[in-house]
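To the wet lab folks,

You asked to see what we're planning to order before we commit. Fair enough. Below is the target structure as tokens, and below that is the sequence we designed to fit it. If anything looks off to you, flag it before the synthesis order goes out.
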């Protein structure tokens, strides 16, 4: 899964987009608003432990199709890994 997370701070007025990848159980209700809110709260707590200001605003970025979460394309990922390994030499 690769949702994008946007952070906003009130003092600096900067916007930062962070792409997050994680593995999930296929039975999780990814499109459920309550699930998304609980996940966002967990992410917020972790980021605050790392120094995120308490007044920072976190939001999910919806894609043009209206979805937040998307499954990774395995074929595309394999091609990219293969290309990166060739570039290392």
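Sequence we intend to order:
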């Amino acid at each position: 899964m690769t949702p994008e997370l946007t952070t906003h701070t009130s003092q600096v007025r900067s916007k930062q987009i962070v792409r997050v990848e994680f593995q999930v159980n296929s039975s999780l209700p990814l499109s459920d608003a309550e699930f998304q809110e609980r996940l966002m709260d967990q992410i917020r707590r972790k980021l605050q432990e790392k120094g995120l200001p308490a007044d920072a605003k976190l939001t999910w970025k919806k894609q043009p199709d209206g979805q937040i979460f998307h499954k990774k394309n395995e074929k595309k990922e394999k091609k990219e890994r293969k290309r990166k390994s060739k570039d290392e030499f």
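Structural context that might help your review: The longest helix spans residues 33-49. Strands lie at 4-8, 15-19, 57-60.

Thanks,
Computational group
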